[in-house]
Amino acid sequence: MIRAIDRKAFIRMTSWGAASLLIPSSGFLSSDIKIKAVAFDAFPIFDPGSIFKPVNELMPAQAKQLIELWQARQFSYQWLRGLADKYKNFLDIARDALDFALTQSKLNPSTKERELIMAGYDNMNIWSDVIPALQAINKEGLRISFLSNMTAKMLHRGIQNSNLTDLFDLVISTDEKRIFKPSAEAYQMAVEQLKLKKQEILFVPFAGWDLAGAKWFGYPTFWVNRSGSLLENLDAEPDGSGSTLNDLVEFIRRHNKN
Fold it and tell me: 115 lies in a domain?
């Protein structure tokens, strides 16, 4: 089963340029069905650059190359373990991938420095538009959840650190079922836990592979394009796209008024 995909550094992840707020739908977002919940991947909410801050501080000359190698290896490990049914959780795989990347880069930081690098995941910062956007979505009467490959502990820590506790109704981690997106079983978790039809849940991805997986599953999607890359050639287009969460809010309001 395909569960994850190799990708380079989060900050250069595959996204589509925000050429327009509304683009042709692939057929899932019917005007007859109102959006009742929004399920977010982690990174439309958390700025991945904050995760890599310790790398940039500890080894600035090698940081860019190390981060790219680390993240590429991390997601290839998820991919391979998913295919082989040899599951490890997101954080454990991140640690294994970091060790490989450091060795490959001929770097040998101390145990304390390695822990400082991994601690970036404990100190994720949110994007500046997150709180007002989530407040606006909440006022529209929609439920808000995560649907992420990160562990629940990681997501809850990020929520608490960023004062988002009152804005999230549900935290869904694929770790609960020991799988990774883009497995259809992973996307099904939001349907089961939100107790809604898939057409009533707007999924908000950060990466192109996650967009494709959600569309293949049957979710309407809004791609928050923060990095402005090309759409992947995976026969899947988002129902809407924008560069910020403010664009997401407008998309929801426009659709639910129809």
Answer: yes
Q: How far is CA 65 from the centre of its chain?
A: 22
214 within 8 A of 53, measured Cβ to Cβ: no
Residues 6+ away with beta carbon under 8 Å from 5: 75, 79, 182, 209
Structure confidence at residue 32 (pLDDT): 75
My answer on whether 171 and 141 are in the same domain is yes
| Per-residue pLDDT, 230 | 86
Percentage above 70 pLDDT, the chain: 88
Structural domain ending residue among the three candidates 90, 122, 154? 122
User: Own/partner pairs for 253-258, CB < 8 Å, 24+ apart?
Assistant: 253/140, 254/22, 255/29, 255/31, 255/34, 255/35, 256/34, 256/35, 256/140, 258/31
Q: What is the pLDDT of residue 35?
A: 96
CB distance 188 to 217 below 8 Å: yes
Task: Indicate whether 197 and 150 sit together in one domain.
Answer: yes
Copy the structure tokens of residue 188. 């099904």
**205, 149: one domain:** yes
State the Cα–Cα distance between residues 129 and 45, nearest whole angstrom. Answer: 9
Tokens at 138, concatenated: 């909440």
Mean of pLDDT values over 198-207: 96
Domain residues for the domain of 108 are: 48-122
Q: In this structure, are 58 and 185 located in the same domain?
A: no
Taking residues 40-66, report their average pLDDT. 95
In this structure, the answer to whether residues 128 and 253 fall within a common structural domain is yes
Six token digits for residue 253: 């309001």
